Amino acid sequence: MTRRPEVAVVAPLTGPRAAWGAALLGGIERARTEHPAAADWRVHDETAGVEDDVVAGDYAAVVGHSDPARGKAVAAAYGAAGLTCLLPFLPPEATALSWAPDEDDLPRLIVEGAAALGAVSLSTLHDGSEQWTELARRVGEEAAAAGLATAPSAAAAAKDVLAVLAPQELCLRLARAVAPRGPVLIPADCGLGTFGSLDSYAAGLEVWAVHAHSCAVRRADSAVTALARTLTASPDLRGPALTEAVRANSGVLLTARGAPLGEGWRISRLHELCRRPGPR
Q1: Which residues lie closer than 8 Å to 185 by C-beta, 6 or more apart?
Q2: Are strands 121-126 and 97-98 parallel, antiparallel or unpaired?
Q3: Rounded Cα gap, residues 66 and 95, in angstroms
Q4: Residue whose C-alpha is closest to residue 273's, from 210, 183, 180
Q5: CB-based contacts of 145: which residues, under 8 Å, 6+ apart?
Q6: Residue 1 pLDDT > 50, yes or no?
Q7: How much of the chain exceeds pLDDT 90, in percent?
Q8: Under DSSP, is residue 182 helix (H, G, I), strand (E, B) or coil?
Q9: 204: region left, alpha or beta (phi > 0 left; psi from -120 to 50 alpha)
Q10: Contact between 8 and 54 (Cβ < 8 Å)
Q11: Per-residue confidence at 154, pLDDT binned at 50, 70, 90?
Q12: Cβ neighbours of residue 203 under 8 Å, at least 6 residues apart?
């Protein structure tokens, strides 16, 4: 009997990014049901240095990772080891395949969104972490280049927009602490379990969600399904040949760089972002 290939699944199991881990593990459970012979899926907690454990294992591929601060390092480690790497939540790096939008366009989109809302000023608020502090800096630069003030106007009738840059479950609590008088822009993903908690904090505010075209659940499913289909048909593939076969089996068209073609960002009213029936 042919031994099933083993796949490393790197997911944050606890802490502030655990909702991303839950989205990925849901995709793995669906793959186990729909493609039971594809692989043995071995879960690793996304901790510092986990890539060393994965590289040392006898894995056909690795799927996961959610920490943008570690994206380049982990992709480089897997590329050097010749290990197929699938990133549902992070932009493509090195030889990895990705199902996530390019975050380079995000500051411009936020500024364009504020302008479309009629803003005189665009101020930012963040949680102090490296990721969101850097995004706030870039948004401020884009706002200044576009001629928007970066502090609220003193004029009572002025349209001031606030961009709150933090994990979605914190954004509206941070916004309420400063009592915004105009529209609020927040990053959001309806595929994460924390999305449902936003409704209670949004009451009385004009909230606009800055979000990827595809939610976390859809991205995780796309990546895991492409890998499961490939390994079911060709369990012995490894390295670049496996990477290219996964690309060919992806239901989402990936560019030569390994990114999803046409995937980007939009801004929607928060209550319109996800209108699925039932629990989120």
Answers
A1: 110, 113, 114, 161, 162, 163, 164, 208, 209, 210, 267
A2: unpaired
A3: 17
A4: 210
A5: none
A6: no
A7: 85
A8: coil
A9: left
A10: yes
A11: confident
A12: none
